Amino acid sequence: MGAAQTRTENKYQDLAEKTGFSQEQIKNLHKRFQYLSGDEETISRDDLRKIPALANNPIRKQIIEAFFDKRNQHQDEVGSFQEIGFEQFLMVMSHFRPPTLKTTDEEREAMRREKLRFLFNMHDTDSDGTITLEEYRKVVEELLSKSGSIGQEAAKAIADAAMLEVASTNVPHMGPDDFYEGITFEHFEQILKGLEMESRMHIRFLDVDAPTMHCGKSKS
């Protein structure tokens, strides 16, 4: 039993070095992973779809897909997994890790860029390195039309106008008949320059204990 515990601690230490989480944070995330997977070694999209707090999220599909996107594993590989294990789950969660008091300015900037890349990947659904009008339009339509306050056609018009403004900002000399291929990551960085990311990028639906997740209600 002592040998098994040592192996687990060594594994947690290895994961801590890869992700920046503390061993205690990794233990807590492992408990959540086990709850989501039903104590299986992997989780599927269906496991994440069962989370009550995600049910009414307008970008629920994009959030779930982000967990299975190979680009979010801190590697250059593209494509999707059918299921992911705990280490892969943890690598995705590391994108949401806030900086600490010990985080240097250089590390903080690298973390911000990682978060932006993660958001960019959520919009760039075909992994071609650009967010096209069609991709951007789908996200805006989902965000606006599902709020119940605006129709799909109006949401489409807002998305088209927003993309046209982005195009005029990033390609100021573009002619009226020129085709705007889409937002590159560099454009995306410029658009969100100055946006505070630390409090905006978090996954609150995982920041609860298993019983709370099971019933979908807050503890009294």
Automatic annotation (TrEMBL):
Nucleus as UniProt keyword: yes
Main location class: other
Keyword annotations: Calcium, Cell membrane, Cell projection, Cytoplasm, Differentiation, Lipoprotein, Membrane, Metal-binding, Myristate, Nucleus, Protein kinase inhibitor
SUPFAM superfamilies: EF-hand
GO biological process: cell differentiation
Record keyword Mitochondrion present: no
InterPro entries per record: CHP3, EF-hand-dom_pair, EF_Hand_1_Ca_BS, EF_hand_dom
Family under the similarity heading: Belongs to the calcineurin regulatory subunit family. CHP subfamily.
Protein name in the entry: Calcineurin B homologous protein 3
Gene source species: Sphaeramia orbicularis
Species classification: Eukaryota, Metazoa, Chordata, Craniata, Vertebrata
